[in-house]
Amino acid sequence: MKKSSVCVLGTGLIGGSVLRAAAAAGYETWGYNRSETGARAARADGFDVDGDIAAVLRRAAAADALIVIGVPMPALDSILSDVREFAPDCPLTDVISVKAPVAAAVRKHELDARYVGGHPMAGTAESGWAASTADLFRGAAWAVGVDPGSHVDPWTRVVRLALDCGSVVVPVVAAEHDRAVARISHLPHVLAEALAVAGAGGGDLALGLAAGSFRDGTRVAATAPDLVRAICEPNATALREALDDTLRLLSDARDHLTTNGTLGNLIDAGYSERVRYDTLQRWDITDIHPGDHDWLERLREAGQRGGVIRDLT
Amino acid sequence: MKKSSVCVLGTGLIGGSVLRAAAAAGYETWGYNRSETGARAARADGFDVDGDIAAVLRRAAAADALIVIGVPMPALDSILSDVREFAPDCPLTDVISVKAPVAAAVRKHELDARYVGGHPMAGTAESGWAASTADLFRGAAWAVGVDPGSHVDPWTRVVRLALDCGSVVVPVVAAEHDRAVARISHLPHVLAEALAVAGAGGGDLALGLAAGSFRDGTRVAATAPDLVRAICEPNATALREALDDTLRLLSDARDHLTTNGTLGNLIDAGYSERVRYDTLQRWDITDIHPGDHDWLERLREAGQRGGVIRDLT
């Protein structure tokens, strides 16, 4: 089957990697990047990336390309206005780290009929086109929306793109996605920042003694601050809930240290949950097909239980 | 110069790696391990490790070996009784993760005249002889005590061993060591455990979406719980202080999320401290020699400012 074409808006680390991976998988690809520096770097690598959003989107409309929004959250509203103006009928997805706020913006611009949200769970502490690679998503989980009202055609194209980029697809609705990533992506960022500050509170002596546990625990604090805020802050409600849980766990450990010199049951609990993570078995969803009766609800329920989609046949 | 001999008590990950590294550096080495399984594994790899503590220590006394205590904190008191009984005049060090409680126990057993504390800042989530390697300490910082009253001969032998194992030596007094490692070693353990629990609170969906930030942030939660407790809990006071700082940082971020949907200044602060850590320059202490006037106090002050010892000449 001939592959459809893919138009990526915003060719930073994630968007740029989608462009590269899609091209490597045989899609016709092109993209837009606001910064001319970034666009030029992509062109120098042989990719068709331009700063003229109208031209880029008119081409998408003409080709019925799948549009992938890869801009950070603060730039979303403006880019959706452009999509609405120049390519309102294209299938549309995004790779932004929250889903409910993106879906709300998409609805506001009346683009929801052909929209299916996405979120590839991959990244590095780097950013920009220079950090993008064609294999960033290989073996990664790629969350794809199964929210009520999703349509089969755009959904199928988004899932196919994710699979062609080497990912496995986790079907999930927006609100549940946002609560999950608050815990396993946004909270790790916040804890890494706090650890970096608390560690440095010990001065050069402490930093000079720091080894693997501090290095790994603060790794993502090396991410550009604007990017971290753009990733975490749109998910404020779910992140606050995850932070409240963490504050309870740490306060409890702190109180145990005070009263009896132990860390309470935190160490056993943390160990057993890390083992659970290490030994988690993904299982393949094979019996639910897009368009089947109740397909969205059934996929949602399968995703909650750890099910993934590995192919679409 | 002929190398002195080294006797390691407790041949787990750290002690076993000291034994291997010292042997590789040309020391005559032997050791003790309480568990016969561990001792047998070491012997199978060609190392002279025995379960007879009296015999092992008598040999140390006869050879004036440097004794390295590598048992976890809960086993320290018993092993010091043995040292006191069978080899009270040997130079003595340890590789335990806190220093003030070890020094107190050493004083209680009247072994302080020949004792100089040590702490190589290296490890993995694994434990036991099977995880030990000769190059674990290569490039690592190795904290060596410069507490008032330390004597030149044992101090020099401990520093030489650390250097021969490939480490750089950070001179530090016990209380300052303990406050520093609370922040860059014990706190990372506690945060990793809390992150593992809070992340798993999102169920299999969240764990299935987890990627690099969660994996790295929880890595050390895979360490055996007994070992984590033995590392962190003897440092309760300093760890509580570091935890209090962390709780303040996280509560402040949480309050900002509630009132204005931002994380306050935590992200900028964390980024700049991580950059500080990444760009920290060690500098070489070259002008202070053991036995010089005020050598201990001058080494302490140099260590506070990021100075390290790379050779002893």
UniProtKB/TrEMBL annotation, chains A, B:
Superkingdom, taxonomy of origin: Bacteria
Keyword Oxidoreductase tagged: yes
One biological process term in Gene Ontology: tyrosine biosynthetic process
Keywords: Oxidoreductase
E.C. no: 1.3.1.12
Chain segments annotated as transmembrane: none
Listed Gene3D superfamilies: 6-phosphogluconate dehydrogenase C-terminal like domain, NAD(P)-binding Rossmann-like Domain
Chain ranges of the Prephenate/arogenate dehydrogenase domain: 4-287
InterPro entries named among the record's database cross-references: 6-PGluconate_DH-like_C_sf (IPR008927), NAD(P)-bd_dom_sf (IPR036291), PDH_C (IPR046825), PDH_N (IPR046826), Preph/Arog_dehydrog (IPR050812), Prephen_DH (IPR003099)
Molecular functions per Gene Ontology: NAD+ binding; prephenate dehydrogenase (NAD+) activity; prephenate dehydrogenase (NADP+) activity
Family, similarity comment: Belongs to the prephenate/arogenate dehydrogenase family.
Name listed for the protein in its UniProt record: Prephenate dehydrogenase
Organism: Nocardia pulmonis
Lineage: Bacteria, Bacillati, Actinomycetota, Actinomycetes, Mycobacteriales
